[in-house]
């Protein structure tokens, strides 16, 4: 109550003072006198202490369900570097720069194969090769003999940028003799011809150069460009020159699927002393792509060829599938090409050919199906093929001067069925291999496929002992074909047998034998 009175009294005093201030116009400003300080105080209050308390615990169980969407996160990280464990290695054997392989046989047969590296370095290697094989059975059949020799040099250089350059140089001398002229002489006939009159010598000079990538490129691209040149002559004289230019590119995808592109030009000029020169020029564009999966492989491509302004497109297809892993694989495919029948290729197949021939291309399409695999250590391959050939080269025998029987090349269209099979196995120290090929010809004009083999059988056996240094070899070859007789009548040629028995001993066992002695 007293507090309320004091408030009213203070208010009235303040109001009166305010009117007084308004009424006074001239108020001195030198000093202010404070009569009384106002001291406001609150009465004591009682403190109320309220202690905090926790809310009651919820003991009920609730099941929560969260839906989290699946999301694949791409986390880049450097690939780990896998390092091989350090293992103790065997001491490295001494390296040799060359090797020599020599042998002999009957009748009067000699064989030599030798090589020597003049330079054998990481960035450059240069080597020489020599090969010789000769035989003579003149004591039983006059002038039945031959002699083959070849010397070659090759070098490759690799630079720091991964580019490689390769060059080859070779000379070949192939001597054959046209024997058989006195095989059917009547009793008492002593016809004899000096060997110089029935001798044929093929001299071939080869030069080639190639540029390619010597190391793997960053984009998995392989490339090469090369030229091949040869000149060939015989005793006639006949001359043939060939020039081939090839460019190849290869791109790998995912280290498994290659795309290849080949561009090839192949020129041939053939001339004799009596005939005008012949030319046979072929051009090829060959793209193909191969896709490999776990259980199958497919190849899709084409062979686009041109010769004498005539274009041909041949298939280049193959599909193979693993039916039973490593046991059975089936394959089917189709391909085709232009096979050049120039003087070099024809005499390589039949060296008793006349020096005046007509050179042509054999145009063929080939379709095949087969199976391959391995069962209990026996590797096998079987194939059935059908080939449609235009201008297939055949060989007819002709009688020339000095009673020399030689062959002439003629051409005919043919359809060929081929059945081929191969088996190979290794049993302890024995290695056995056998191949059989059967051709069935249907000719367009000619009565028979003159001097083309209908049946070929090859069987090989090898036994190795003394840590593979001593080897016993046996090789059996059999061919059967047809040929016309001199009177023009077709007759079956007796089977041609070739049996080789040999012993081979490696005087020093290294990756390439330093010295080998062979007897056949």
Characterise the protein shown here:
With 520 residues, the protein is mainly beta. It has two domains: 96-184, Aspartate Aminotransferase, domain 1; 216-512, TonB-dependent receptor, beta-barrel domain (Maltoporin, Chain A, Beta Barrel), CATH 2.40.170.20. The chain contains two helices and 23 strands. It has helices at residues 2-23, 343-349; strands spanning 98-105, 109-120, 124-136, 145-158, 163-177, 199-213, 221-233, 239-253, 257-271, 278-292, 296-307, 310-324, 328-341, 360-375, 378-400, 404-427, 430-443, 455-465, 470-480, 482-484, 490-492, 496-506, 515-519. The strands form two sheets. The protein has a 21-stranded mixed barrel. It has a two-stranded antiparallel ribbon with strand order 20-21. The radius of gyration is 48 Å and the shape is elongated. The N and C termini lie far apart (149 Å).
Concise structural overview:
The protein is mostly beta strands. It has helices spanning 2-23, 343-349, and strands at residues 98-105, 109-120, 124-136, 145-158, 163-177, 199-213, 221-233, 239-253, 257-271, 278-292, 296-307, 310-324, 328-341, 360-375, 378-400, 404-427, 430-443, 455-465, 470-480, 482-484, 490-492, 496-506, 515-519. The longest helix is centred in the first third of the chain and has 22 residues, at 2-23.
């Amino acid at each position: 109550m007293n507090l309320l009175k004091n408030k009213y009294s203070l208010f009235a005093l303040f109001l009166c003072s305010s009117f007084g201030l308004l009424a006074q116009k001239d108020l001195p400003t030198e000093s202010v006198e404070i009569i009384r300080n106002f001291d406001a105080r609150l009465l004591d209050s009682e403190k109320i202490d309220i202690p905090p308390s926790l809310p009651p615990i919820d003991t009920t169980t609730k099941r929560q369900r969260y839906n989290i969407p699946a999301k694949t996160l791409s986390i880049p990280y450097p690939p780990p570097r896998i390092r091989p464990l350090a293992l103790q290695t065997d001491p490295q054997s001494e390296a040799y720069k060359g090797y020599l392989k020599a042998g002999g046989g009957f009748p009067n047969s000699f064989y030599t194969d030798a090589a020597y590296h003049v330079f054998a370095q990481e960035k450059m290697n240069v080597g020489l090769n020599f090969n010789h094989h000769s035989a003579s059975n003149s004591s039983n059949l006059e002038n039945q003999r031959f002699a083959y020799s070849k010397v070659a040099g090759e070098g490759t250089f690799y630079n720091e940028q991964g580019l490689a350059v390769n060059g080859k140089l070779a000379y070949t001398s192939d001597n054959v003799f046209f024997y058989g002229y006195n095989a059917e002489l009547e009793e008492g006939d002593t016809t004899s011809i000096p060997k110089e009159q029935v001798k044929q010598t093929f001299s071939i000079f080869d030069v080639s150069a190639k540029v390619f990538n010597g190391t793997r490129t960053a984009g998995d691209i392989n490339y090469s460009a090369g030229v091949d040149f040869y000149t060939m002559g015989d005793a006639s004289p006949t001359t043939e020159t060939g020039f081939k230019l090839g460019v190849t590119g290869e791109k790998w995808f995912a280290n498994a699927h290659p795309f290849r592109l080949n561009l090839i030009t192949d020129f041939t000029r053939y001339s004799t002393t009596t005939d005008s020169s012949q030319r046979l020029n072929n051009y090829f564009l060959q793209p193909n792509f191969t896709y490999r999966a776990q259980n199958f492989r497919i190849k899709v491509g084409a062979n686009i060829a041109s010769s004498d302004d005539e274009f041909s497109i041949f298939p280049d297809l193959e599909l193979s599938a693993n039916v039973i892993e490593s046991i059975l694989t089936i394959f089917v495919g189709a391909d085709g090409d232009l096979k050049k029948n120039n003087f070099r290729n024809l005499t390589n197949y039949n060296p008793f050919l006349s020096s005046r021939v007509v050179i042509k291309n054999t145009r063929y399409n080939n379709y095949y199906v087969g199976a391959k695999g391995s069962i209990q250590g026996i590797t096998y391959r079987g194939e059935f093929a059908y080939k449609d050939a235009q201008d297939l080269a055949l060989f007819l025998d002709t009688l020339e001067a000095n009673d020399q029987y030689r062959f002439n090349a003629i051409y005919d269209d043919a359809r060929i069925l081929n059945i081929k099979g191969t088996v190979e196995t290794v049993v302890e120290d024995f290695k056995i291999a056998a191949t059989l090929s059967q051709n069935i010809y249907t000719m367009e004009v000619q009565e028979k496929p003159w001097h083309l083999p209908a049946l070929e059988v090859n069987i090989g056996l090898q036994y190795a002992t003394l840590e593979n240094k001593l080897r016993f070899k046996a090789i059996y070859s059999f061919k059967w074909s047809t040929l016309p007789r001199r009177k023009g009548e077709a007759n079956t040629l007796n089977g041609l047998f070739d049996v080789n028995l040999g012993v081979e001993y490696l005087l020093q066992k290294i990756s390439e034998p330093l010295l080998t002695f062979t007897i056949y």
